[in-house]
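so the lab meeting is tmrw and i was supposed to have these ready like two days ago... anyway. pasting both below. for each one the top line is the aa sequence and the line under it is the structure tokens. i havent really looked at them closely yet so no promises
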Amino acid sequence: MITRVKICCISSTAEAKMAIDFGASALGLVASMPSGPGVISDDVIMTISKKVPPAISTFLLTCETSADEIIQHHKRTLTNTIQIVDELKQGTYEKIREALPAIKIVQVIHVIDERTIDEAIKISYSVDALLLDSGNPNLEIKELGGTGRVHNWILSKKIAEQSKVPVFLAGGLTSENVRQAIDQVQPYGLDLCSGVRTNMKLDPQKLEKFFNNVWK
């Protein structure tokens, strides 16, 4: 099976094109966040998403925690996928699906301890995919992604094995550790930001090395 790759923190149509040219099948577009890199405005997200070919997934990363606010946020960006980076605290996934029936829903699971496994499996019944990351939403200033840290892949493997939907692996991925990540976790897809950047700009050499190691 070919491992899909999502390049996150896309900041412009030029970065979007570069990521797609190297082989990305999905792009992450980061809206306002309490912390972390790559934030762009909703207007820029919409501009990029409109110019991306239909076969490529465009992920709106939203930190909204209510179904109503997530629905409204999507309407300001018009991506084809919503990545919910925090816990859904008000409303339901079904409400989002009813309002936006053509849009895929991806829930981020911040892998912290064994309890994360049960949480992830339960949520997998309600969404289109899970994305396992290394943040910590329990901190005073929430970490909801973009940490550049590797989490416990043993836990991620257990989630990937039991999830009812495809699983993306994120958190500290680079060309040096990506083969190990694929072999150990066997995720449907990979998600990364800083691992293919230099001074927060997409780096063609790092992209090439990363994709070569994914597909070798």
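ok protien two:
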Amino acid sequence: MRLDRYFRLCIGEAARGLLGHRRTAAPAIMIIAVSMVVFGGFVLVSDNLNGMLESWRERGHAQVFLDFDVTASERQAVADAIRDSASVESFRYLSADDAAAQFRQDFQELGDLLAFLESNPLPASFVVTVSASARHEEALVELTEGWESMPGVDAAQYDLQVIRRLELGVNALRFVGALLGGAVLLAAIITTANVIRVLVVSRRREIVVLRLVGANESVVRGRFLAEGAIQGFLGSVLALIALYGIYKIGVAFITAGGGPLLAMIPLRFFNLTLFAAIIGSGVAAGLVGALLAFGAATRLER
């Protein structure tokens, strides 16, 4: 039998079988959808956080915080040292008042807190853009340590320090997502296997007749594999629809002022690779469930 004809036969028989037993197959499809929503949700959050961290890496920013009692000569000396550095692309001075104004702009919900304080707690600083050739750990450490040693400087830090801490949180999120998504996906595989096993048992007589008339084992089993794959595909599609709805609600929430920290994350939906990965994971779960159900099929009388 030609391969394309074989696939059409298996998919056609699987579609008819699922339509005829849709009440039995629906729970497996829904559980696969739920598992893909859980797994895909963690992937979506992780991908957006990675995008945020990548954009921060590309900025190459460092910040030199000055003492509150810094003198004009000390501040000028720091500015000259930054300007004379071959690793600096550009820099700007941010006064304490400018820092407070920027804080109020970036964190509108928290900016009013500054009005209750007796003095401005934000120090003046220099915001430095490091050249592309120096945007690595060794060069940044050398730069910030040199600036920190100067009179009038309280501290110096670079984005990679913050990024490194955030990456720990992203990796922890991935680990939790893998555990939780894997557990729910395992439940989906078991449910799919039980559904396929029920379908195999309910068609025992039909399968026996097929074998008696000469149908080979690949045709008999292929239809059940196709049923598992279709269940996984439908569950994944439902999950992607749900995730897109959640994504649009999240974007609308942030656009309407859903929090200063969330507004710093440039949200994006799945790219083509992740989209295919979610679909592929659902189909794989359905196929594995169908393979597990073959224990019942092999016990059928020939």
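from a quick look at the 2nd one: The CA atoms of residues 104 and 110 lie 7 Å apart. The mean pLDDT is 79. will dig more after coffe
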